[in-house]
Amino acid sequence: MPDKRPLYKIIIDDLKDKIEVGLYAPEAQLPTEVELAEQYGVSRITSKRALIELEREGLIYRKRGSGSYVKQPDDSDVIPYNGVQNSNSIVSMILPYMATNEFEYIRAATDYLDAKGYYLSIHNSNWSKDKEKELLLKLSKSGLSGIILYPLSTISNVDMVNAISSNGYPIVTMDQYFDSLNVSSVVSDNYTGGYLAASKLIELGHERIAFISSVSIEFRSSVRDRYLGYCQALKDSRIPIDSEWVYTDFYRDVNEKNSKTFYQSLLAKLLSQKVTAIQAEHDILAGELLRNALDAGISIPKQLSIVGFDDHETSRHAEIPITTIAQNYYELGRSAAELIVAGIENKDSERRRIKVPVRLIERESTGVQPNREDIILF
């Protein structure tokens, strides 16, 4: 049966569910109107109405120039952590942001922890290095059993993570890993994902393939491994790795006002170098590139192929659905919970790194290498 609810009501009900299960804790910041519009494939007017209705219901409050935040419950005596008073049975999960994928992490971790007699509390660092550090310090000293950390990056708060681990406190990282630290981790097989994406483009005849990431290669282990997989696929096919086709670390330069100019300039630069395919670090970025390519009159995939990573819902609902690498978010969350319980119940357990398999999903954004007459020159 098709969902007959108005679009703004779908957003409202979804956000209410996330607030109820703790995905958005009190004082957590909600996605912006623009982010909600992109996430649900609606107009900004629709997403704005949803936030206004939530504010009228007293569930959120809005700060001018800052955003929307979950309101504290009226009852100041509400007990955190799902009502559990014994902190010895609580595991905390720190996430850098709240989106659809995080539901799977949380659902999987909760399923495993419930079966083992533990409870899960959720905390949002909101892409802030300082907030992540504050949470790590507070939670590790609060008597909780352990921490599952989805790091902002693997070059931030290394000292804090190392101190916590060295002091014998159970901590596990999810999505990323710290190479030099004695900390267990569970990650997607990003190297294989990067290799699969590049190999698919090579199979389609592409040789001039760009790798695009809004953050630097070293900022996250996940990005680094995807890039190295891309490089290995090119090497195995005897295709030179051209550093001019690798464009990274520009997230500080892009904002709502200049994004169209920025991305279309980037596309023009790549096409002037006869690049025929782009491997994007994640699906949101792939979607931005695809939209701006279409706006510039570039035919996808006839003149340019684009591959993303994550199998984010935006990749499925893009104007031209995006070929991507799918991660198993449920297994990531479940394995992280398994590792943290092992660390809690066996303090001498050795460091482990679990790699969760990924898979290629081919959609309409990729096609064969364009004919010479179809290549756009700038």
UniProtKB/TrEMBL annotation:
Alphabetical UniProt keywords: DNA-binding, Repressor, Transcription, Transcription regulation
Regions annotated as coiled coil: none
CDD domains (alphabetical): PBP1_LacI_sugar_binding-like, WHTH_GntR
SUPFAM superfamilies in the cross-refs: Periplasmic binding protein-like I, Winged helix' DNA-binding domain
Pfam name, any one: Peripla_BP_3
Domain HTH gntR-type span(s) in chain numbering: 5-73
DNA-binding in keyword set: yes
Gene3D superfamilies with a match to the protein in the record: 3.40.50.2300, Winged helix-like DNA-binding domain superfamily/Winged helix DNA-binding domain
InterPro entries hit by this protein: LacI/GalR-like_sensor (IPR046335), Peripla_BP_I (IPR028082), Tscrpt_reg_HTH_GntR (IPR000524), WH-like_DNA-bd_sf (IPR036388), WH_DNA-bd_sf (IPR036390)
Protein name per the record: GntR family transcriptional regulator
Organism of origin: Paenibacillus mendelii
